[in-house]
């Protein structure tokens, strides 16, 4: 692999006698990985049904290396949101931020959602995730991945960090900044990144990274934690950004990151973590975990609102709700135009460029209610009155994902007519409507198996 001379010199400077080992690692095969969605499936359950051979990623509880060429994005379990394909070192930032159920979490640079999907799963439906990306088109992919993962308690925005900062001072318990960077850790996987690097090297990214981390720190609650990560090796974009932040913010300090024997220490900042491809099976990452000093006062309290008024819902919605087997907090419902949403919390959210506010439950069309794809993905089979379960090896599974009408007269279900939650085994894929053993397909057309 041809590397720019300037880059080679910088890496030699950084790695010294390890440089040759690093260079050799660029000739090794690319390591693919995937992370299971523990919001939908436990590790034990997954290992019983996993359709492809894999080996555990030793520093990520729910991460696996893919061992063969299996097209993991072409399996019904992928469409059920059971896993996310991800390079193993990229699994580390969301894993080490230690999000807990009930946290208010911000992922400031979230698209396409490799980390946000993990942060959201860890909330277990409690608290909320604000997933933001300045690029609207990338934020659309982010929304799809979050919905596929079944994450309901979320807001997806496409905003300038400065605007978010004005609206959320000291608001979040956890903030992730997976910053845009010169991508040196991607050279192996995507050699095109080398060309981009030659046009826009580390110096171009530093001012953006400093801005992002500064805004991120301002949105962090006292006592909250912020994780800054990049997939680049340049000290300018890594340790020097952290050092700069520590000089600006005396109320922030570095804390150590749960260790792994393959991690290297940050240069001059030993609490930071470096992932190098010649030291472990990952392409390369930098991580710094910071904490803000706690104070007596919890500022988020003042932003919490009293519960909203309960909506009077059309009959068709009430009828559909009678099929849902879990309590819906009606004070958190919002009907906007024809769309019905379930908001994560009784928190007043400011005016922002939203791509999604809460869980889209469905649309009220004249006197009909059409449940959304996102709702199906957020449910478990026990949450719905009638389910049709298709085996992953049954051709009807892929036919369903292609949008075809199916004869399911041989498959058991509770209600012989009306709405069904269609599952691959016990994992929801979408909705369908049953009549005389024939299932009308309600799988979202934009997500179909191509
Ligand atoms: C490294 S990628 C994020 C990858 C993502 N965290 C994941 O794991 O899938 C950086 C992202 O930052 C976004 N970005 C760039 N400048 C930004 C800014 N000023 N504010 C917010 N997002 C920004 C880019 O659009 C890009 O999607």
From TrEMBL:
CDD domains cross-referenced by the UniProt entry: AdoMet_MTases (cd02440), RsmF_methylt_CTD1 (cd21147)
Which Pfam family is one of those matched by this entry? Methyltr_RsmB-F
GO terms (BP aspect): methylation
> Matching InterPro entries, A to Z?
Methyltr_RsmF_N, MeTrfase_RsmB-F_NOP2_cat, MeTrfase_RsmB-F_NOP2_dom, Nol1_Nop2_Fmu_2, RCMT, RsmB/NOL1/NOP2-like_CS, RsmF_methylt_CI, SAM-dependent_MTases_sf
Q: Which residues form the active site?
A: 231
PROSITE patterns in the record: NOL1_NOP2_SUN (PS01153), SAM_MT_RSMB_NOP (PS51686)
Instruction: Please list the GO terms describing molecular function.
Output: methyltransferase activity
Gene3D superfamilies this protein is in? 2.30.130.60, Sun protein, domain 3 (3.30.70.1170), Vaccinia Virus protein VP39 (3.40.50.150)
Q: Which UniProt keywords apply?
A: Cytoplasm, Methyltransferase, RNA-binding, S-adenosyl-L-methionine, Transferase
Q: Which residues bind S-adenosyl-L-methionine?
A: 109-115, 133, 178
Start and end of every SAM-dependent MTase RsmB/NOP-type domain? 22-293
Q: Which PANTHER family match?
A: 28S RRNA (CYTOSINE(4447)-C(5))-METHYLTRANSFERASE-RELATED (PTHR22807:SF30), NOP2 YEAST -RELATED NOL1/NOP2/FMU SUN DOMAIN-CONTAINING (PTHR22807)
Family according to the record: Belongs to the class I-like SAM-binding methyltransferase superfamily. RsmB/NOP family.
Q: What is this protein called?
A: RsmF rRNA methyltransferase first C-terminal domain-containing protein
């Amino acid at each position: 692999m041809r590397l720019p001379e300037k880059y080679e010199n910088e890496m030699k400077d950084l790695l010294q006698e390890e440089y040759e080992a690093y260079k050799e690692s660029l000739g090794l095969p690319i390591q693919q990985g995937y992370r299971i969605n523990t919001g939908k499936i436990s590790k034990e359950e997954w290992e019983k049904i996993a359709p492809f051979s894999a080996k555990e990623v030793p520093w990520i509880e729910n991460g696996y290396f893919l061992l063969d060429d299996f097209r993991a994005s072409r399996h019904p379990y992928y469409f059920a949101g059971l896993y996310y394909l991800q390079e193993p070192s990229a699994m580390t930032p969301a894993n080490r931020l230690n999000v807990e159920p009930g946290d208010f979490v911000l992922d400031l640079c979230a698209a396409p959602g490799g980390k946000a999907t993990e942060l959201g799963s860890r909330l277990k439906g409690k608290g909320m995730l604000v997933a933001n990306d300045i690029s609207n088109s990338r934020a659309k992919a982010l929304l799809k991945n979050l919905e596929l993962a079944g994450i309901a308690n979320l807001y997806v925005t496409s905003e300038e960090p400065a605007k978010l900062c004005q609206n959320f001072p000291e608001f979040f318990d956890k903030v992730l900044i997976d910053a845009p960077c010169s991508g040196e850790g991607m050279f192996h996987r995507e050699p095109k990144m080398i060309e981009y690097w030659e046009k826009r090297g580390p110096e171009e990214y530093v001012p953006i990274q400093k801005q992002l981390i500064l805004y991120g720190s301002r949105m962090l609650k006292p006592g909250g934690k912020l994780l800054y990560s990049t997939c680049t090796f340049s000290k300018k974009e890594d340790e020097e950004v952290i050092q700069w932040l520590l000089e600006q913010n005396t109320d922030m300090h570095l804390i150590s990151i749960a260790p792994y024997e393959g991690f290297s220490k940050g240069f001059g900042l030993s609490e930071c973590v470096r992932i190098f491809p010649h030291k472990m099976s990952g392409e390369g990452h930098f991580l710094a975990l910071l904490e803000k000093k706690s104070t007596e006062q919890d500022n988020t309290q003042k932003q919490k609102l009293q519960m909203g008024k309960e909506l009077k819902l059309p009959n068709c919605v009430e009828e559909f709700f009678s099929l849902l087997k879990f309590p819906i907090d009606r004070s958190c419902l919002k009907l906007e135009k024809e769309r019905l949403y379930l908001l994560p919390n009784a928190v007043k959210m400011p005016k922002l460029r939203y791509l999604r506010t809460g869980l889209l439950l469905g649309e009220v069309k004249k006197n009909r209610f059409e449940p959304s794809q996102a709702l199906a993905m957020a449910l478990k089979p026990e949450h719905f009155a009638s389910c049709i379960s298709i085996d992953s090896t049954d051709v009807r599974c892929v036919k369903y994902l292609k949008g075809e009408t199916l004869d399911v007269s041989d498959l058991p279900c509770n209600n012989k007519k009306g709405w069904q939650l269609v599952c691959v085994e016990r994992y929801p894929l979408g909705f369908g409507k049953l009549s005389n053993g024939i299932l009308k397909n309600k799988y979202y057309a934009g997500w179909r198996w191509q």
